[in-house]
Every structure is written in structure tokens, then in C-alpha cells.
Design brief:
Layout lengths: L2 E2 L6 H4 L10 E2 L2 H7 L9 H7 L4 E2 L10 E5 L11 E3 L2 H7 L4 E5 L5 E9 L2 E12 L5 E6 L5 H14 L5 E8 L2 E6 L14 H11 L12 E8 L10 H8 L4 E6 L17 E8 L2 H13 L6 E2 L3
Parallel strand pairs: 1-2
Antiparallel strand pairs: 3-6, 4-5, 4-6, 7-8, 7-10, 8-9, 9-12, 10-11, 12-14, 12-15, 13-14
Length: about 300
């Protein structure tokens, strides 16, 4: 199984997918960075901002206008680590460091887009919209069946220009139709919602350099997280409880997204809360109901659920 997975809860997606031993598919940015040094520039958020012609810079380039959004130039762990809105010059001087960059503060829909790319040409694309909550957390995601024509056109052109010789998967995050970051991998949180045969198509892309996937049965999917307040790292729910939740109507998968033997501060989590699990489902209300059931398995922590 040469899908290289660092988190054990991802294994459920890849264990039954045949992949030749010589085909290596990176799931985590740490591996992408190590294996593909020629594409390090894709992980440089300053480069990504400049590639779109948006206002941006380093701590040496004081913005003309505020507010701006500041974050590490390279962040291989995600979860919005170190990111913040900077409202004025005083905050800029106080909080900007040499490893950070700033860019214009975008507003609008937050969308994660997966692309299958062959020699810089996008062969398949799908958009998932996130609904922001607080502290860099999301209420839930909708993995849309419908296309976003304008965003697809923009990202297709950007990939062709920035990755003209690349073959593989690309994930791009946008806010208001402008790119905030990109990775040479796919979003593994909801890959099971892309449909039967999709992971086999990913193997074919990396093995043969071609994309072959019947996407005619695409339908909306939903990814619903469960958060708790930072502090105690609880025990995992029993296997029986997890099996019962996975069997609920409309539920596609359950991920318990933390290591019960690792201290809380050693997990890469958003500042607003500690992510306990993720329910992928085919119906949003079914996802909410399954989240309520999952929350009951964590009686010893302070559960956080959006109103």
C-alpha cells in the first residue's frame, strides 16, 4: 500500500486499494516537501501570492493599507498555525517575524479544490466549500457535485502556468476566488466522498501518467468535524461505538483524528479547539446526528458544537 499515511485514521481509505510497490503517493506535505524539492516554490505562500499579483510581502515590506493577513511563508503542518489578521502598523512590527509573510485580506467563500493534473493540464477538478467557525475551525464542508465554472477556469490557468511539467494531484485553497495556498497532493479528509474508483484513478495517474475516472455519478458529500476545548486528550471511543456510528444511515466514514498517547500540545490543531473526529456523510443532517452520537463517547471533555 504505497499511499504513505502518517496518521492511522487515514488507513481505512487506502488499505483495500491496489497500488504497486514502486508507486509512491504522498498524503502529507512533509513527504511532498522531501520527495519533490523541485516544487518547493508551490509551498511558498509569498510566491503563491505574487503569482496572482496581489498585495503581499515580508516583514521588510510594510503594507500601505491595513488590515492584512499574516502567516508563515511555509507551513507543512496546516491548521492555520501562526496565522493572524494584522490591523495596523504597531501590530505588524510586534507580530511579524522573518519566517512570515503577509498578503491582502481576502473575503468570501473558503474553498478547497482538488485537481488531477497531467503535464500541467487539469484533467479532473472538484471543489469543496468550508464554512468557517471560530479559531481557524470549520463548522463543516460541502464537497460539491456541481462545478464552479469561474473558479475552475482560474485555477486551471494557474496550474498550467505554475506547474507546466507536473503530473499528479494538486490541492488549492482559495478565499473569494483568490489562492491562499497550494499543495502537491489531494485533500485526504474526504477522499472517500469522491466516488467509487477514484483512488484507483489516483494510482493510475501516478503509475502511468494518465487520468481515467468515470465521474458521471458524482453527488454532494459532507464532512462534519467534532471539536473539544483544548486541554485533556481523551481515550478513543471503543471499536464497538465506532462501528455503530459508521453504520448509521448516510454515514460514509468516521475518522478519530488524534493520538490518545500523545500530549495535546504535540498535536497540530487549530487554535480554537482540539479536533476529536470527522464524520463524512451523504446527508448533512445525518452528519450532524452522527456527530451528536460521537460526542456522547467523549464524556470527559468539553465538547464544542456550532449553534
Amino acid at each position: 500500500m504505497p499511499f504513505h499515511v502518517r496518521d492511522p485514521w487515514r488507513l481505512q481509505y487506502f488499505e483495500q486499494v491496489h497500488c504497486p510497490a514502486h508507486v509512491d503517493i504522498a498524503i502529507d506535505d512533509i513527504d511532498c516537501w522531501a520527495w519533490f524539492p523541485e516544487y518547493h516554490y508551490i509551498y511558498d505562500k509569498l510566491h503563491v501570492a505574487r503569482s496572482q499579483g496581489v498585495a503581499c510581502g515580508t516583514r521588510m515590506d510594510v503594507p500601505v493599507e491595513f488590515p492584512v493577513f499574516a502567516k508563515p511563508r511555509v507551513n507543512l503542518h496546516g491548521m492555520g498555525l501562526g496565522s493572524r489578521v494584522i490591523h495596523n502598523r504597531k501590530e505588524f512590527v510586534t507580530h511579524m517575524s522573518d519566517d512570515m509573510m503577509w498578503m491582502a485580506l481576502f473575503t468570501g467563500s473558503h474553498i478547497s479544490t482538488d485537481c488531477a493534473v497531467v503535464n500541467g493540464n487539469v484533467q479532473w477538478i472538484r471543489h469543496a466549500e468550508g464554512f468557517p467557525w471560530v479559531g481557524a475551525m470549520f463548522k463543516h464542508w460541502i464537497i460539491n457535485a456541481a462545478d464552479n465554472t469561474e473558479l475552475t477556469r482560474f485555477l486551471t490557468r494557474w496550474v498550467a502556468r505554475e506547474l507546466p511539467h507536473y503530473t499528479g494531484m494538486v490541492n488549492i485553497e482559495t478565499i473569494g476566488g483568490r489562492i491562499i495556498e497550494a499543495q502537491i497532493r489531494f485533500a485526504d479528509q474526504w477522499c472517500d466522498l469522491n466516488g467509487e474508483g477514484w483512488l484507483e484513478a489516483v494510482v493510475g495517474l501516478y503509475q502511468h501518467g494518465v487520468w481515467a475516472f468515470d465521474d458521471s455519478r458524482r453527488r454532494d458529500g459532507f464532512s462534519v468535524p467534532l471539536f473539544a476545548a483544548h486541554g485533556v486528550v481523551p481515550r478513543h471511543p471503543s471499536s464497538d461505538v465506532q462501528a455503530r456510528i459508521r453504520a448509521l444511515p448516510g454515514v460514509a466514514s468516521l475518522q478519530i483524528t488524534f493520538h490518545e498517547t500523545v500530549p495535546g500540545e504535540d498535536h497540530f490543531m487549530p487554535p480554537g479547539g482540539f479536533r476529536l473526529g470527522i464524520l463524512n456523510c451523504w446527508n448533512l443532517q445525518a452528519g450532524f446526528a452522527a456527530r451528536e452520537e460521537l460526542a456522547k463517547a467523549f464524556a470527559d471533555v468539553e465538547i464544542m458544537i456550532p449553534k
